[in-house]
Specification:
Helix content is 32%, strand content 24%. It has 228 residues and is of the alpha/beta class. Strand 6, helix 5 and strand 7 form a beta-alpha-beta unit. The radius of gyration is 20 Å and the shape is elongated.
Length: 228
């Protein structure tokens, strides 16, 4: 009953400069790297006593949000739930990523050449196949996926030292390109765009500091490269 009252209670004025609280955010390491600089710059000015804990994506689905262990999740929300509020932030699309000077980029990247490369898949559930494999199948092709890693950050660390190929959202790849030795290229097959979202439990709907957090995330991520 108390949680229901909190949800229905209109938002009240609160001096956010006096709010001392740790806000926990689930995000892939690479999305956290894109989000955190802008979010923390804004926080220093507007909620200076707040602290932020970024944690990797959970293997327990939506449970951490429901149970209050996490304030917000950012990224591809692939397990929608009627118990959560989900707000789309922008549309993104997948691109290919390799190290600088990779032989794959010596010529135009064809579907056949792309499939023949050795690939690293990014999946928090350990999947070795996905939409790219479905698209390649239309050409009668199959790629060799030699490993799966749980987040894009780990894939980015592997690429500069190897000839592996991976695919990731364009916004992450372009942001990472500034600091990591990688090159980005358009995939030779089409995949559906993805929706980057933020999700939270309704218990936080009108909580002033949480309203601030959602606005700050919205502002930071809708200004990322290729956000639309």
């Amino acid at each position: 009953m108390r949680e229901a009252e909190e949800i229905l209670t209109p938002s009240y004025q609160e001096d956010l400069t006096q709010v001392s609280r740790t806000l926990t955010i689930i995000a892939d390491e690479a999305y956290a790297a894109v989000l955190s600089p802008a979010l923390l710059r804004q926080a220093i000015l507007e909620v200076p006593l707040a602290r932020f804990m970024f944690t990797v994506e959970s293997t327990h689905g939506n449970a951490p949000l429901r149970e209050g262990a996490v304030d917000i999740e950012v990224g591809i929300i692939d397990e929608p739930s009627p118990e959560l509020r989900i707000e789309p932030l922008f549309k993104d699309g997948f691109v290919g990523v390799v190290r600088i000077g990779h032989p794959l980029l010596a010529d135009a990247v064809t579907a056949k050449a792309f499939a023949a490369a050795r690939h690293v898949s990014v999946s928090r559930k350990g999947r070795l196949t996905g939409p790219i494999d479905v698209a390649l199948h239309e050409f009668g092709l199959r790629r060799e996926v030699i490993a799966s890693v749980p987040n894009y950050g780990e894939a980015l660390l592997m690429l500069p030292l190897t000839d592996f190929v991976t695919a990731m959202p364009r916004s992450l790849a372009i942001s990472a390109q500034k600091s990591v030795g990688i090159e980005v290229f358009d995939l030779p097959v089409e995949t559906d765009p993805i929706s980057i979202c933020q999700a939270w439990h309704p218990r936080h709907e009108t909580e002033p500091v949480h309203v601030w957090l959602r606005q700050a995330i919205r502002s930071a991520l809708t200004r990322t490269p290729s956000a639309a």
